[in-house]
Write a structure and sequence with these properties.
- The complex is a heterodimer.
- Chain A folds into 3 domains: 1-82; 87-276, no CATH class; 297-464, TPP-binding domain (Rossmann fold), CATH 3.40.50.
- Chain A contains 17 helices and 8 strands.
- Chain A has helices at 2-24, 30-51, 62-82, 88-117, 123-150, 162-183, 189-207, 215-236, 240-263, 268-273, 297-305, 316-321, 324-336, 355-362, 373-379, 398-401, 452-464, and strands at 53-54, 57-58, 309-314, 340-345, 370-372, 385-389, 420-425, 445-449.
- In chain A, α16 links the parallel β6 (385-389) and β7 (420-425).
- The chains are: A alpha/beta, B mainly alpha.
- Chains A and B meet through α1, α2, α3, α4 and α8 of A and α2, α3, α4 and α5 of B.
């Protein structure tokens, strides 16, 4: 009776995951979708705690379980509530890493159980345990590096022959796992910890050489890894809800990763082997680009208030400066003067796809003002002023003209089609991908240096006083 | 070959779930607009937190004197809860900003 009740609650939870993901993919229902999945998850967790039985025995150690859940809930809620909008992508990466670590730990303990049992372990079970361990550990280590890279505390790091080294580590992991599963299951504890350690090492070196600008792709990939690791748990316990949730995320995450690579017109292999990484920066030495011209605030104010159509191109600089609210104010002010203002959103602007949308939505910018790349590119020709706010690589013409550039082939926002381009940046330093931007030296471009928030505040004041 | 076929037969319901879920996952995410990529990734991140169930089972089955299993299991429960709770709260915070106007 109890166990069939549990099966029923798992069934409902599985359905809520699917429905939740479906609702999450439409703007109008997204928030409710998240809630639906959360309710299903709660149901499955509570059901497991009170109704789970194995060989007629229910679970013990309630004190530990509730203490663990309490600690996790408090830490998770506080950190998720406190995190700044700019740091959201890092947070997602970190939470993903926690899930991966959880899967790895389950495998460690289960191996312990299998060896405690003393009997010759079932190779199927061993395979699943080791698979969950390896994938979970890689996901954990990789996510932590991705987190560090996004918040700037870990720099790109690569050494010659690193890809060979990585492949070797992976080969050793597979070799050890194969030996354990197929030939000699009765290995001591240290053997499984050896696999664990090597998997962590692989995760670290897998993400180290990949450039910071490619982190969104990496996080999405590791997200699907963790999904597969969770599904391994589903196999292990013959638990349908873990299986459903894990595979669902594994499949969706893989597709999302591929979609993101497509948005940059690169293959996944190209991202992972890392043309952004290490030595590629030599191509940036185009050097003597000539001179750029600066524009004053008052000129900018005049130019923008008397334009018919203005496009704003937001980038990571906007997020760092927390300038989304003042940006919305500028937009409203210009609209009140009869200027048509829209935002051009590059699919990989910021540090994650949709990063800019989330940021601008926070400032109450209407949804229909955010134009996707294709639409914006059609409209730039009839646009008077394009204001580039802290974006760089996504407007770099080198992506179209310079085959030697690391971003060659990535579709960009063709801001050059418009009459004037005003670029706000803090300095002439190159963008996240570490490459120069010719756009800044073009005759139609003017530079407006300063912190995005400060500059926009002054600009709004200037326009008001016109 | 014999063992392989036997394995398929023994695990058929699981294999069916895996295959169907791969298609469901792809279908569900296929038509998502770019604006929702980040929240969707974050939501999916929270859903794979279902791994917490495995952690609870491990914890609940650990022998009272097996301190290694208890410690690792406890850590797994904490990390899994972080993944679930943190994931859903962060997603909700992102989506809070998509409030409808008009």
């Amino acid at each position: 009776m109890y166990s069939s009740l549990l099966t029923f609650s798992y069934l409902i939870a599985s359905v809520t995951f699917i429905v939740g993901l479906k609702m999450l993919s439409h703007p109008a229902t997204a928030r409710k979708g998240n809630l639906v999945a959360a309710v299903g998850m709660t149901l499955a967790v509570i059901g497991t705690i009170f109704l789970y039985e194995k060989d007629g025995e229910s679970l013990g150690n309630y004190g530990w379980i509730f203490a663990g859940i309490a600690v996790g809930t408090i830490l998770g809620t506080v950190s998720a509530k406190k995190v700044k909008m700019t740091a959201m992508p890092e947070m997602v990466s970190l939470f993903n890493g926690m899930g991966g670590a959880c899967a790895a730990l389950i495998s460690l303990v289960e191996f312990d159980h299998l060896s405690y049992a003393g009997t010759t372990a079932n190779p199927d079970l061993l395979l699943i345990v080791v698979l969950g361990l390896v994938i979970g550990s890689i996901s954990f280590a990789g996510s932590v590096i991705a987190w560090g890279k996004l918040n700037g505390s870990i720099k790109d790091f690569a050494f010659p022959g690193q890809h060979i080294f990585n492949l070797l580590v992976l080969a050793v992991i597979i070799g050890m796992a194969g030996y354990l599963i197929a030939l000699s299951p009765a290995q001591p504890q240290w053997f499984i910890y050896g696999i664990f350690g090597l998997s962590i090492l692989y995760g670290l070196f897998f993400v180290f050489p990949i450039g910071g600008a490619d982190m969104p792709v990496v996080i999405s990939l590791l997200n699907s890894f963790t999904g597969v690791a969770a599904a391994c748990g589903g196999f292990l316990y013959d638990n349908k809800v873990m299986l459903t949730g894990g595979i669902l995320v594994g499949a969706a995450g893989t597709l999302l990763t591929i979609l993101m690579c497509k948005a940059m017109n690169r293959s996944l292999a190209n991202v992972l082997i890392g043309s952004f990484g290490g030595g590629a920066k030599a191509t940036a030495a185009a050097g003597a680009q000539g001179s750029y011209k600066e524009i004053t605030l008052s000129d900018t104010a005049v130019l923008m208030s008397y334009a018919n159509k203005v496009y704003i191109v937001p980038g990571y600089g906007l997020a760092v400066a927390q300038a989304q609210h003042i940006c919305h104010e500028l937009e409203k002010l210009l609209e009140s003067k009869g200027v048509e203002v829209n935002y051009a959103i590059h699919p990989v602007a910021g540090r994650m796809p949709g990063h800019m949308n989330v940021l601008l939505a926070e400032a109450d910018v209407p949804y229909d003002k955010l134009k996707e790349m294709e639409q914006a590119n059609d409209e730039f020709a009839t646009t008077d002023v394009v204001l580039v706010l802290g974006a760089n690589d996504v407007v770099n013409p080198a992506a179209k003209s310079d085959p030697a550039s690391p971003i060659y082939g990535m579709p960009i926002l063709d801001v050059e089609l418009s009459k004037h381009i005003i670029v706000n940046k803090r300095s002439m330093k190159p963008g996240y991908a570490g490459i120069e931007n010719e756009l800044f030296f073009r005759p139609k471009t003017s530079m407006l240096f300063g912190d995005a928030k400060k500059v926009l505040q002054d600009l709004v004041a200037e326009i008001k006083s016109l | 070959m014999q063992t392989f076929l036997h394995w398929i037969e023994a695990n058929q319901s699981i294999l069916y779930i895996v295959i169907l879920m791969i298609f469901v996952g792809i279908e569900v995410i296929g038509r998502v607009p770019a604006v929702l990529h980040t929240p969707l990734m974050s939501g999916a991140n929270a859903i794979h937190g279902v791994v917490i169930i495995g952690a609870i089972i491990v914890m609940g089955q650990a022998a009272a004197d097996n301190y290694l299993a208890l410690a690792l299991g406890f850590l797994a429960v904490v990390l899994g809860t972080l993944n679930v709770v943190g994931g859903f709260v962060v997603t909700d915070r992102m989506l809070e900003m998509f409030k409808k106007k008009k």
